[in-house]
Amino acid sequence: MSQSAAVHPFDADEAARQTRSRVRSAQLLAAAARLMAREGSGAVSMQALAEEAGVSVGLIYRYFGGKDELLLAVICNVLDAFAVAVPDAIEAAGPDPVRQLAAAFRAYCTVIDTHRHAAVLTYRESKRLSEESREKLKKLEGHFDKITNAEVIIKVDKLQQKIEATLQIPGGEVVANAEHEDMYASIDLLTDKLDRQLKKHKEKNLSLLQGTGR
Fold this sequence. Notes:
This protein is an alpha+beta fold. Helix content is 64%, strand content 13%. It has a domain at 148-214: 2-Layer Sandwich (Double Stranded RNA Binding Domain). A hairpin with a 2-residue loop joins β2 and β3.
């Protein structure tokens, strides 16, 4: 006798509840990231977080157990974004390792630009977390190890979106900068520059290897 899988009816009310929950959680994370990046997580109270988000303190506790849990959630949110964007960019770039690295770096910059406040907290405030929370972060960081040493500076100067990058790669260092009125155009310009420099670095290494007969 054949058995068919149980079919669960669509629950519109539950779907709406989950959607509201995701939206509210994102609202709280964004507010926490802004405030903590501006004031420092240690100086921020739950009342200040509630005022920044435009909600009650009680509502925050419905979603998060406290300030430390909220800080961890902010950091995990941006690391999750890295974990999705960077591998997807590498896969879409094809087999060329140079194009993979350039694509990964563009994705890296895009995530930082999209989550600026959370990115600041990731590198500035992670030491405030408990040992258990830091171990969780280490696992997440392993998802985007294609970029092992990168320094990125994004700033606005007289309406120009400026981005500077330094990549540590085997056998050297690649430095590039770009600016444009649009941040994503700046990232595109920077990625093109990095792509050219990485290709030159690869060709130089190949020449050296051929010269030594390896």
